[in-house]
Amino acid sequence: MRKHKKLTLGRVILYIVAYIFAFLWLFPIFWMLVSALKPVGTPVSILSKVFTGTFTFRNFILVGEKAPVWTWSLNSLIVSSAVTFGTIALTSMAAYSLSKLNFKGRGLTQLIITAGMMIPIEAIIIPLYQTMAELNLLNTYSGLVFPSLAAPIGVLIMKRCFDSIPDELIEASVLDGANPFQRWWQVCLPLSKSSMAAVGIFTFKNAWNDFLWPFLSITSEKMMTLPVGIPQFQGANLSEFVLPMTASVIASVPALIVFLIFQKQIMQGIAMTGIKG
Amino acid sequence: MKGATNSERLKNIIKENIAAWLFLIPYLGFFICFLLFPILRGMYVSLFDAALGRESIFVGLENYVTIFKDKAFWQSLFNTLFFVIISTPAIVLVGFVFAIFVNSKLKGTTFLRVSYFASYVLSMAVVTGLWIFIYQPYTGLLSVITNALGLGEIYWLNTKWLVWFAILVTTIWWTVGFNMVLFLVGLQDIPDEIYEAAEIDGANSRQILFRITIPLLRDTTVLVILLQTISSFKLFGQTYLMAGGGPGTHTRTLVHYIYETGFTNRRMGLAAAMSVAFFVVVLLVSLLQNKVFAKK
Amino acid sequence: MSKMFKAKKLLAVLLSVSIFGSVLAGCGASKEENKSSGDTQTPGKVTEQPKPQGKTKVTFWSPFSGGDGDIMKELVAEFNAQSETTEVEFLIFKSEEYYTKLLAAMTTNSGPTVAINHITRIKEYVEDGLLLPLDSYAAEAGLNWGDFTGRLQEAAQVDGSYYAVPLDTHLLLMHFNKDLLEEIGMLEADGTVKIERGEEGFFKFFEEVKKRAPEGVMPISGTSQYGLPMYLWYTLLTQYGGDILDETGTKATLDTPENKKALSIMMRMVENDIWPKNQKNGAEIFTAQKAVATINGVWALPIFESAEGLNFISIPFPQFTDTDSVYADSHSLVFPKNDNISDEERKAAMEFAVWLTNNSAKWGKAGHIPSKPSVAQSDEYQSLLYRKDYAPSAEYAKFYPQSTSIAGFTELIQRELAAMIAGEQDVDKTASNLQTEFQKLLDAKNK
To answer: Rg of chain B's alpha carbons, rounded to an integer?
Structure first.
């Protein structure tokens, strides 16, 4: 239920500032979208040439003609979806354990998982590559999905979420005879929709944009994901900018759409009333 | 539990331990195979003079001695720390402010939410390409503005210190959506009833913000700060792609130097040693933060 | 409770998609096991591959993007159509990380049958035994090394064996906006550009351009970081008789009068606003007609040709001394080490390489100069605009000397030049930095 509050001076200023920032934030993206609609060869950094003159959708067709962009997009979609659903499932389970169950080694496990984020990917990429080569997982869907499932960030976000669920609620369900699984499924998960949506959005975006690992792993056209294939359109010597803009738009839009679909879920609150207590 | 005997209690503890591990193992399996193991493998390489495609020679701690004596290593560490210090408060704060905007029940909340977050879904290549355009002299967006204002050309990405500001702005623009979402999720955990009660008690917006909202966001804030710190430590793409680590080596971060050492110069043992050093620094900073923010 | 039902539904969906996902993943894994050679193989494991349609399959990797990539795709398609025995799968990988990928693949026997490699970078791979010598394959396929330019022949050999089949020479040029030049009265009557040889001739010309150029138009555009300053610098350095290291290959020769001369000429251009500093998009400034001239390589031609309303001319880079020299590199074909690739596949790859070098006139559309002078003389190539005018400069193309530290040096010189142009350090400091840092790189490799 949305209650629009009274319009005070403070609130007017709030409106102005919020909207100014919103437009500032959107402008570069807007410029990118418009540039993709210009004829090839247009100097995209001359604003007057970008926002006036001819527009065309030809570039998207051109990009599709030059390379199997749809195959790339499909691969990206398959991998990103598998990673996202897998991550939500795995991390919500692991975080529940770290948050609500008592076991020996809990603190250490959590520390190790968090520590996993403290090494930059560039440092691990070659050992990872060698490991995957030995496991015969190079150039496979599994090889693209599995490393991403190891990301600690989802665990941390879900753990914070579960930590904020009052123990009284859990204890109430224990009194009803709930076992750990039921406590997780029936009590914690329904209250964590917001966090699961956040984890889903972040995971999807990271998986969608992931470049370095897929780049090293993929050795055939059929397996290429979007970030690996798209640089074909970017001249190494950066002489032409419209096609790279088009490519950027194509590469970015799906992640944006996923966000648009799920962003409302982040706003789900916990209704404290109506829970058995 | 009323009336539970000792052996019943023990059985429950064991049951709980088993349950805990059952829940943990699926994730942990992937973590150990595809993250922990490569990390350990990489750390092991730091004891060798190694290059991809060549025989490795065991050198013990020699790599660590080398980096300790390497001025470039310390400079890149300093550059990285500098960025962590200037960026963490900034990006956390902006994320918080945007979350408040979005949570303020203004008209067009969805539009605001999408606007602030849309930049986050873009890839590194796209973001740096966009911002190079904005900053570039003679034909860039800012150049048009500064020339119109009579300021002439400002070389955002080629001037010492100014370049850090430019990189910071780009990074804020790109990543603030993440912090904003985490704060939003945290804000959702605060029930409306608390706000309603406060309003009935006559509290104004400022008081609600500082006495209710912020304290109740404590856990979220701690998480955001931790994640932002780690993320800032890993800075590489923006400085590398937009400024080439320059001017000179002014914006060469630790990850950049690790990359250059390991991949361009093919000294993987050295790079591995630097990665271990990186890890230790980040771990220490995180533990320090943990202590500072520990619940009393 | 409807909330519980929804949660159950959600999780059911999650689980089924995860299962579906892993099934797909499994399919992916087994699909790959049946793929042709050059893909996922563990070290030492050799698999019998069925030949698709009776043709030998060759995998070919390159870092070509944009126009280069398009033209090579056409060439590969042409080859596949005319070959009865060989089928080439062509893959393009991002140029910045291309060598990392190639290197990683070579160390795990998952590299391609044939790959593009810049000729200046082969030495370090040869030293590590990562590239196959090509002499026997070339002899069998009837490839005559003498058909390539002298410079290319030299650069393709390491210790007396050939390791690379050169496809082209690509070098630095200068491009001029004909309309603007004409407007300021500096275009020759026959539509060409005439700059007197020598330092003073160069600056006399461009000082005049600067004086007469319309408001908002710069004399020379050129991106002030990454490769371009390096190409310019090396061109000047070698024209003045300098180089980056001595004949032994162990001593850096950068704190020298020749280098300081080259660096100061660059600074003279920058400080006199002939080549304004800190440009990020030199080529775009030129296509937007905000520059009278631009420094760029042969590869820029297709872009300029497709820029609407741009009337331009490309000439060999101006010479400042009596020594002809220009920075160049060459895209060449190499055989990366891979124990899983059969001799037959290698021969097929050589067949492809030979065909490419004989048909590289089309490659000239990308601006590059064919590696064989005979191909450069062909009608097909000569008919391309301006190519015949600058093709002869391939004869004095100067590649980096063979060294295992070229990759690291490239990173170093680009960084130092960018800093110098930005005004952060002077010529002497730049020269001494280069000397110290490059010597460090060389010493590390020669330990």
So the answer is: 24
Task: Report the relative pairing of strands C312-316 and C397-398 from DSSP bridges.
Answer: unpaired
Residue C6 in this model has a pLDDT that exceeds 50: no
Decide if C52-167+330-358 and C172-328+402-445 have a common fold: yes
Q: How far is C406 from chain B (nearest CA, A)?
A: 9
Q: Output the CA–CA distances (angstroms, integers) from residue A1 to A262, B101, C399, in the order listed.
A: 19, 17, 71
Q: Which residues of C touch A231 (CB under 8 A)?
A: 65, 92-95
- The number of CA neighbours under 13 Å toward the Cβ of B153 is 15
Query: Which residues, in sequence order, are bridge partners of residue C161?
Result: C158
Chain A nearest CA to B153, separation (Å): 15
User: What are C4's two structure tokens?
Assistant: 């519980």
Q: Annotate B88-109 with three-state secondary structure.
A: HHHHHHHHHHHHHHHHCCCCCH
Position B203 confidence tier, pLDDT thresholds 50, 70, 90: confident
CB contact under 8 A, C104 and A66: no
Q: Which residues of B166-196 are buried (b: 16+ CB within 10 A; e: fewer)?
A: bbbebbbbbbbbbbbbbbbbbbbbbeeeeee
pLDDT category of residue A239 using cuts at 50, 70 and 90: low
Question: What fold, for C52-167+330-358?
Answer: D-Maltodextrin-Binding Protein; domain 2 (3.40.190)
User: Which band of pLDDT confidence, cut at 50, 70 and 90, is reported for residue B57?
Assistant: very high
User: Could you tell me the fold of the domain covering A17-267?
Assistant: MetI-like fold (1.10.3720)
User: Which ranges of B59-161 does DSSP label H, i.e. alpha helix?
Assistant: 62-68, 71-103, 109-118, 124-135, 141-148
Query: Does C103 contact chain B (CB < 8 Å)?
Result: yes
Please name the residue of chain A whose CA is at the shortest distance from the CA of residue B227.
A153
Q: Which of B35, B121, B178 sits opposite A255 (nearest CB)?
A: B121
